[in-house]
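Sequence design from tokenized structure. All designs in this work follow the same two-part layout: the structure record, then the generated sequence. An example of the structure record is given first.
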């Protein structure tokens, strides 16, 4: 069993550490939000008052942070991971961040003698709770092999995407495709109902036909169709509009550096921005249906 340091105990970090503890690992965790540390302690995580305390004596350190600037600060700032951890400690950043930040962290880790993996995840809070996340890993073969036994306690799938920042590249493109697919699902759901189709009947047809997709099967935006859908819970977030907007922004920024046009992604980015401007940013991304039909069944009345 491993001794693990963990930085970032929010909606994803807490259930991920809970699964590590359940698997028999020793986990010490830190978060800038004291309440998050207290909550994780209820799951068996040893609370830490600083990054240095969390990483002391760790075999492996994971970070799960909101944005690239947070990851850079946690690793590079005074009192951060690079300054506090032993170079024998394996480092895994499971945040979803921009491609350039991931490459910068790899370079900084190499300069300081650390082994480093960019390892973002897909599957949302539900996957984190169930221990079925998909990990997309970027780094050297031997380092990935070393991290795999620990990651298995949190994962349903583990992919070695390639070298430095390949995990982030895979995650950014995956989430871009998810957002575009979801826009198609919400538009289809509204149009099907306007044609007079029963939502469940339409779902049953589409889910075994060419219009099938993961967001259709998991996030169908009309209640009474898919039990796990956020539409059953007034669009409480499994994956918030704000986070999807952030991830699409990463895709669009990356596309600029690669001289690629992304017209569909740009459209959905604008639709998500509209929801955020109207106060719906903390609701699930499937509330995109509100842009098509503000009176759709299951929508909350106010943000």
């Amino acid at each position: 069993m491993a001794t693990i340091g963990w930085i970032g105990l929010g909606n994803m970090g807490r259930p991920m550490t809970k699964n590590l503890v359940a698997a028999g690992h020793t986990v010490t965790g830190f978060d800038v939000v004291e309440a998050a540390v207290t909550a994780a302690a209820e799951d068996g995580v040893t609370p830490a008052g600083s990054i240095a305390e969390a990483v002391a004596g760790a075999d492996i350190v994971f970070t799960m942070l909101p944005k690239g600037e947070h990851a850079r600060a946690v690793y590079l700032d005074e009192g951060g991971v690079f300054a506090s951890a032993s170079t024998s400690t394996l480092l895994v950043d499971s945040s979803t961040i921009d491609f350039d930040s991931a490459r910068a962290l790899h370079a900084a880790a190499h300069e300081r003698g650390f082994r480093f993996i960019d390892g973002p995840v897909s599957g949302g809070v539900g996957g984190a709770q169930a221990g079925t996340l998909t990990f997309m890993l970027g780094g050297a073969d031997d380092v990935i092999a070393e991290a795999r036994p620990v990651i298995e306690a949190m994962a349903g799938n583990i992919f070695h995407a390639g070298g430095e920042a390949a995990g982030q590249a895979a995650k950014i493109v995956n989430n871009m495709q998810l957002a575009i697919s979801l826009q198609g699902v919400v538009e289809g759901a509204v149009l099907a109902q306007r044609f007079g189709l029963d939502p469940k009947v339409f779902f049953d047809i589409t889910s075994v036909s060419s219009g099938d997709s993961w967001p259709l099967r998991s996030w169908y935006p009309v209640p009474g169709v898919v039990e796990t859908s956020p539409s059953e819970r007034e669009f409480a977030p499994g994956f918030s509009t704000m986070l999807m907007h952030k991830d699409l922004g990463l895709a669009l920024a990356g596309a600029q550096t690669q001289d690629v046009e992304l017209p569909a992604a740009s459209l959905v980015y604008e639709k998500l921005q509209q929801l955020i401007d109207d106060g719906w940013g903390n609701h699930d991304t499937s509330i995109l249906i509100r842009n098509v039909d503000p009176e759709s069944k299951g929508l909350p009345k106010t943000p």
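The mean pLDDT is 97. We note this feature because it recurs in several other targets discussed in the main text.
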